[in-house]
């Protein structure tokens, strides 16, 4: 960081995050709204954007969570269980703060080191329900809507039953398993997610002697068709990219290409079922005629998504966790009021000061710090990152949908991988990523400790996704939201809502 600027900032104010006058009327009013005991859902915008399934449909599942403490208690073929545990261990960051079952109070040394992996609530529920549904009609379509808080291990919640079913089918059909088919597909909204999910899928497929294929912008049709002729066990792609297969002469029709496809996951379903994506998602699903299991997976259930799934799949089975629509408990949430001195209404100054405070707060010792800044509008991102770089000397990357996919990937990578160790005696470094949440949705940023919301998110859905890039899998994280006096009391009350674990609506 530019030394002059950091000194100026330091002299302006000590590390300062806004506080409110506790005697003011608005404070008193807010206090009433935030009564910790009240389990009334808390709205961010002017209307409720989130919806919960009926209590009686999920209460039995919630009871299950306390009863199961090990993957061994869940119905999974042993190679799948072993591969799952191996992959999770490889991907864990900062082992000592890894997920440890809350039902078990005494932590052994292995647990403290992250060597014992226990299923998270959403993993318990999904594996139990999807793997145990007994079919009267073996070919009957079953649709599941699976929703749990961000960073709670939803990827493995759907991959475990998917791999389990693939292995069971193989055992049942022996050597009669047909070639030239796609057996399952995982649909995600962005190329970044195709990459992230397929990395996990590919590594597990190797252990399970299955084949994975990533059909993405940089894939080549000749390779794809070669893989298809040998059988693709898991295809990872976006709905639009899947539909693009229709344009190749060798394919004939997408329906025939997808004959034999039994299992489909629609990951980040709240995005893939919203109005800008639904046409592609719907078109892709319509081409899958032999589906037996469809899993819609999401961190939130927006009202619109709830309406659409109810309309198309009235018998869908909800699988949700007790903490759905609450921010992860490991998150500490604070507001920064940009209307007060020294910012005097300048959000960019408030942001620069927050970054400076994070940079010098003595946390993450020995590691490069990484901070993610979310804005509401694409065009704002460029402006903000430019000013942070030129006026305040920060090391900033800005993701834009106009960047080529590989450029975007290289910008995001330093934030996805584990934090880098600094060399002995090296001065603290810090990288900043400025983006909108669309490109960051679902990305498993590894060990990110600080997120800044430059703009107040427009809905609870946006808030959940953005804040959820930190505090993943019970690792601690801080979220700072820049507010102004113009924001309403509901917005200003969010830190208390998060502290008391109130549900968002
Ligand atoms: N049972 C477990 N114990 C410990 N770590 C786990 C477990 N299951 C998954 N993880 C790890 O937790 C991290 C977050 O998982 P994942 O990305 O699946 O979260 P998610 O619920 O899909 O989040 P989002 O809603 O943001 O997409 C990953 O690094 C994953 O390897």
From TrEMBL:
Enzyme Commission code(s) on record: 3.6.4.13
* Key words of the record: ATP-binding, Helicase, Hydrolase, Nucleotide-binding
Which superkingdom? Answer: Eukaryota
Asked if Isomerase is a keyword of the record, the answer is no
Q: Which InterPro entries does this chain map to? A: DEAD/DEAH_box_helicase_dom, Helicase_ATP-bd, Helicase_C-like, P-loop_NTPase
Example GO BP: RNA metabolic process
Q: Which residues form a coiled coil?
A: none
Q: Which GO terms describe its cellular component?
A: mitochondrial matrix
Single Gene Ontology MF annotation: ATP binding
Which reaction is recorded as catalysed by this protein? ATP + H2O = ADP + phosphate + H(+)
Short name of one Pfam family: Helicase_C
> Where would I find the Helicase ATP-binding domain in this sequence?
135-319
Residue ranges constituting the Helicase C-terminal domain according to the UniProt record: 350-505
Protein name, UniProt field = RNA helicase
- Please name the taxonomic classification of the source: Eukaryota, Fungi, Dikarya, Ascomycota, Saccharomycotina
